[in-house]
Design brief:
Protein name: C-type cytochrome, methanol metabolism-related
Region (Disordered): 148-174
Number of domains: 1
GO molecular function: electron transfer activity; heme binding; metal ion binding
Strand content: 5-15%
Pfam families: Cytochrome_CBB3 (PF13442)
Domain Cytochrome c: 41-145
Largest sheet: 3 strands, antiparallel
Oligomer: single chain
Order of helices and strands: HEEEEHHHHEEHHEH
Helix content: 40-55%
Distance between the termini: 13 Å
């Protein structure tokens, strides 16, 4: 967990130092999984991503991201990342946002003021129910943003990998 905290802190403070940290439109090709580490998938740039099987089974992290998003994020950002009158559609926003920026905004929060309107994204860096699952939430929203995941609960999911169980226990302080 200490390494993850250092990486997140560096992403937040020095995002320009991270290779590939250029905002560009994401698509299914860029989001394609090229590496598997104990059931967690990564794209060619090393960013977390999703992997769906031909029978519709989603990887554990995408399923977990769906659950965590709907536990903590959908209240403002709407079901399935589709947005609301209160907060933007993350299924669209993530398509134009790199991974370090996503982590930074969720951990530190953000305030936008314009046109006489103020929008505030609270910081979730101290909320373990969000912080410990940031990658999962990102992976789910990434799958939604590139059109790989339809709306609604994924019908099939892979089993929870041992690495996910160990990380969760460590992050949650168990």
């Amino acid at each position: 967990m200490a390494f993850r905290n250092v990486v997140l802190a560096l992403c937040a403070v020095f995002p320009f130092l991270i290779p590939g940290n250029v905002t560009a439109v994401d698509d299914k090709q860029k989001a394609a999984a090229v590496k598997d580490e104990d059931g967690k998938y990564f794209d060619a740039e090393g960013n977390p991503t999703f992997k769906f099987q031909s029978d519709g089974t989603v990887d554990w992290y995408t399923f977990s991201g769906y659950r965590r998003y709907h536990a903590d994020c959908h209240v403002c950002h709407g079901p399935d990342g589709m947005g609301s009158s209160y907060a933007p559609a993350l299924a669209t926003t993530v398509k134009n946002m790199d991974y370090p920026t996503f982590i930074s905004i969720v951990a530190e929060g953000r305030k936008n003021v314009g046109g006489g309107k103020e929008n505030v994204m609270p910081a979730f860096g101290d909320n373990k129910n969000v912080y410990c699952y940031l990658d999962d939430i990102y992976v789910y929203l990434r799958a939604r943003s590139v059109g790989a995941a339809p709306r609604g609960r994924p019908p099939k999911k892979a089993d929870k990998p041992e690495a996910a169980k160990a990380y969760e226990a460590s992050c949650m302080g168990e």
